[in-house]
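Translate sequence into structure tokens.
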Amino acid sequence: MNVFKPKGDAKNEATTKTARAIIDNEAAARIAKTARLRAAREARGPVVVEPVKKAKKKAAGK
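Result follows.
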């Protein structure tokens, strides 16, 4: 029976815990940024785009 963990496992757990904390912080920042940008886009209102008229092609022989 192993009463104590090998030293390598403690280092792996610490690395995993740190990496997960970083990833969680980045995900939270990304979600906050998305919410902020979405709110700003909705505050602007709908975007109306005017259709562009195409130029008529001239006949080559005329």
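Note: The radius of gyration is 29 Å.
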